[in-house]
Amino acid sequence: MASKDPKRKSNRKGERETDLLARLDSGEAASVLKALLARHRELRPEAEAIARHSLTQVSLFSVAEDVEIALLQYDYDDLNGRAGGHSWGYVEPTEAAWELLEEAMEPFVNEMKRYREMGLEDQAQRFCQGVVLGLYRVRNGQDNDILGWAEDFPAEAAGNVFDVWMSASGIGGEGETARHKPRTLPPAFVREHLPDWGWLLKPAAGD
CA-CA distance, 189 to 111, in Å (whole number)? Predict the structure, then answer.
């Protein structure tokens, strides 16, 4: 009879525990991390360093692509489900289209604000650039059923995102100093990627 290998048994146990952690959803993982840091406060600096590194990886072109996907996801079925007669009244197709597109944009605006609130000014700017670029790419409607009913939405939404980025105040870190400086998108970026939206070059104070 083969002898039992305690090291091999220990490895199998470790693999099962690793599999359990890999199967946690985001909420469960956050709860485990919170409990771990509460028990081992010496790990907090390392955890914060990892978190900051993760948050600083902002690709404006990936953000732009995500914005395009979000805005082009709707079709006439979505529009018809929102427009028309309802118990609360009649909703015009144009109004319904704007509502859908505004809902699609909301997570991006909130994410940009989150970077500002954490004092990550450079990341907030890149995220803003990505959102505006995504809106610019769909400014002609892309033969999309919804954007055809809201032709002015991309430019107006870009103006709103730009204003939110300029007016939001960061807290701590870079945000404490950057909010007192005029902010504008990099001129070279606007001229190369947003040539029809030169109005985005206007500077404005952070407050």
Answer: 21
